[in-house]
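Methods, example record. To illustrate the input and output format used throughout this study, we show the complete record for Farnesyl diphosphate synthase. The sequence lines were provided to the predictor; the line carrying structure tokens was produced by it.
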Amino acid sequence: MNFQDELKKRTEEIEAVLKSYLPREEGFAKTMAQAMNYSVLAGGKRLRPMLILETCRMFGGEDKLAYPFMAAMEMIHTHSLVHDDLPALDNDDYRRGRLTTHKVYGEAMGVLSGVALLNYAYEVMLTAFDLAEDEKARARVIKALKVMSHKTGLYGMLGGQSVDVENDGKPMSREMINYIYENKTSALIEGSMMAGAILGGASAEEVAVVEKAASGIGLAFQIQDDILDVTSTAEELGKPIHSDEKNHKTTYVTLMGIEKASQQVAELSEEAVKLLEGLNKKNEFLFTLVKELVGRRK
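The corresponding predicted structure is encoded as:
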């Protein structure tokens, strides 16, 4: 398997799925739709929808049932980035190599389009019921919806975001940083992989293993993000570097240093792959993808 070729192929597939679910740019709310689509189509790794698809495939599920969840998860993730970039939060001008949504459409539309993306994501996920062919498939859709709702709300992404904002610029303990990372970042990775597993027909025990592996992947991903904020370039990342330092944020790098933080990333990723391989399900691309996240430069 040529991983880079397969990655390109899957990313193109996901782009096509995303575009098929985007709102139409028409009517009086045309500007809102344009702002939503501008932020979603800004590029990115498409990691979360990819994890949904590949985990679903690992358990032998049908791709089409995963499509609405893939599009919705990318909308939810994008909504969080649009709001992260707002002047009230990180106040960033660039994201994924181009101007942030609020710099193009104004702060008010930045707020509104972010909220609209979050709401629209649930509209899209509900269309999965139209694709479910029997009661068993519909039951899986319901379970996946519950997971997605939980992992993206107060007890997941938004909860972690609130604690991050509330403690911005303040010294933080390792325990608090873990809470923020586990919720703000890991929760979306967990939600993605758990939803994929559920849609693929995984048992409750298998979903629990997937959740544990995804938690480690999410934490490793965020620590690597901290490292890249210090070691990468603005051109590579497509956004400003040293933003954590600028915003006086406590990170794994400020607590542990780059070397120990990098070691932590490697250990977490290795453990996650072991957990997934222990399920005795085959998906070479998924396992390689997790390993590749360790050495990413953007």
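Annotations derived from this record:
The mean pLDDT is 91.
DSSP finds 16 helices and two strands in the chain.
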